[in-house]
């Protein structure tokens, strides 16, 4: 019984963790790119990295929280312009090539030894260098609080304040996405996804709308990068290609072009990984599967589940087949 109680406790910790919220934010941004606009962005981790380091580096240089946040948003917008201006008039697969390459270029630049003093190089930036301004905004009293059996400090490296802000942002951007996709602007995005030539024939600039969608989804991804870095540190290798692939898995799992698909996909992604590793660690002897092999097994099973989902329910758990017409 202790095992099941511990497993449920760990699952609850995972569900409300800032990392889970960060993935949900990045997936919401990717869903605007791919699900609603049909943009093949294979570098969402690059937006997360640009947003996180824009905030972190400016904080280290002495900017306050709000100026640092504004700089992070501006960096995400500039990154979207750099990616979008030369590619959005071309076919969608060109954007995929550019975004995955650009994300890796940014990651390599951040890791350069010549920028060690600014970015921390391969080791990244410690949270103690950029977190104080965020902590100072907390209205929570010092000390610890226990909710649903989970105890964390109210303000600190791994605290309730970060969790509160993270999940408020998730709720806010879900609401923003819902409102925008019900607006004429959102209907144009869906039209671009389904038949870009028809949208052009109505006098709409598909290029401008796609650039706007790329900027919006990128800024949301930048917020995800900031939240991901808040609990401990920001490291460039933590925002590389595997992160983007995981985000694509989350969007496809929950359902592209759905409001709650990215959130559901994120929760399932993290809970299933924890469930598989927990059960395998408890019931499979170490002589058969060690800890590293158990983690690999979790990835294998998630991959198999995604393959089955794509074959038998390509629209994802919450998706609608009518939303699967992509002009890419």
Kindly describe this structure.
With 328 residues, this protein is mainly alpha-helical. The protein has a single domain, classed as Orthogonal Bundle (ABC transporter involved in vitamin B12 uptake, BtuC). It is 68% helix and 4% strand. It has 15 helices and four strands. It has helices at 2-15, 18-36, 44-60, 65-84, 92-110, 116-119, 127-130, 132-136, 160-181, 184-194, 196-201, 206-229, 241-254, 261-283, 291-312, and strands at 125-126, 144-147, 150-153, 233-234. The strands form two sheets. Strands 1-4 form a two-stranded antiparallel ribbon. The protein has a two-stranded antiparallel sheet with strand order 2-3. β2 (144-147) and β3 (150-153) form a beta hairpin. α3 packs antiparallel against α4, α3 (44-60) packs parallel to α5 and α4 (65-84) packs across α12 (206-229). 41% of the residues are buried.
The largest pleated sheet is described as: 2 strands, antiparallel
- Numbering strands along the chain, what is their spatial order in the largest sheet? 1-4
Please state roughly what percent of the residues sit in beta strands, choosing from under 5%, 5-15%, 15-25%, 25-35%, 35-45% or over 45%. Answer: under 5%
**CATH architecture annotation name:** Orthogonal Bundle
Are there runs of 5+ residues with pLDDT below 50, and where? none
The number of distinct helices, counting runs of at least 4 residues, comes to 15
Termini Cα gap: 51 Å
Global mean pLDDT: 90
Order of helices and strands: HHHHHHEHHEEHHHHEHHH
Structural domains: how many: 1
Give helix % range.
55-70%
| Shape call | globular
Radius of gyration, in angstroms, nearest whole number: 20 Å
What's the CATH class, please? Answer: Mainly Alpha
Assign the structural class, choosing from mainly alpha, mainly beta, alpha/beta, alpha+beta, or little secondary structure.
mainly alpha
Number of strands: 4
- CATH-defined topology: ABC transporter involved in vitamin B12 uptake, BtuC
